[in-house]
Amino acid sequence: MRKIPFLLLFCLPFSLWAKRVEIELQSGASITGEVLKKSSEHWVIDLGFTVLQVPAKECVEVKELKSGKVIGSKAGDHLYRTDPKLKNRPLGDLVSELGECVVMIRTPIGLGSGFLIHPDGYVITNDHVVAGERQVSITQFRQAKGELIKENYDKVRIVATGGNVDLALLKIEGHSNKVFPTVPLGSSQEVRQGERVFAIGSPLGLERSVSEGIVSLRNRIIQDRLHIQTTAEISPGNSGG
Length: 241
Known about the structure:
The structure is a single chain. The strands form 3 sheets. A 7-stranded antiparallel sheet has the order 1-5-4-3-2-6-7, with no helix packed on it. By secondary structure, it is mainly β. The chain has 3 domains: about 70 residues, SH3 type barrels; about 80 residues, Thrombin, subunit H; about 45 residues, no CATH class.
C-alpha cells in the first residue's frame, strides 16, 4: 500500500465550530475527525488524540458526517468527478447538497446560471450566456444559519466555449486558497425516459429556484441538435444551471 505523506502537528484545543467529517483517501482508507482548517493545499484534521495535515491531492472526497454533504473533493487529473449513486438520493437531500454548487452568472447584458465542477473554481454554463462578453461575474449562494449568503466573484475568466454544443467553461480567479463544492457529472447514455429530474438556477433573476419534472424523451432533435426533453420548468436565467 502506498504511504501517504501526512504531517504530524502539535495538538490543538477542541474547536466547537469545527465540522466532523469523513475523508476518503486515494489509497482506499478513510479518516474521521474535526476540520480545524482547510485550503487548496491541505486539510487540518483533529483526530482527538493528535492533529493531521492531510494533503488535498490525497483526498478523494470530504463529507460532513452530520448532514452527509460533500464539502470537498478532488478531481485529480480530471476536470470533473462522477457519482453514480447520487441519483438514488431523495430530492430534498440532493437540492440541499448541490445547491451551493449552482451559481448565478451576470454579464452587462443579462444573467444566467452555471455549476461548479472542480474545487479550483471551474464552472460550466451555456455558451449563449457569455458569448461575446468580456466582463463576467459569478455569485455563489451559501446556506448559513437558515439564510442564503451571497459570495460575489468579479474576476472570472472564459476558458473555452463551444457554440456548436452551446457550452462554455469558466474559471473563478484569485481564490487559490478556497476549495469550491462541486456537482458530479453523469452520462446522457444512462438517462431513462420517465426518470426524475430537477433544475436549480435563477430564472428571471429569482435566485436559487428549484423546479422538478421527468425525462419526456432522451433524444429529441431540435434544429439539428440532440436534446433531452424534460417537464422541469425552465425560464430565462435558468440557462447553464
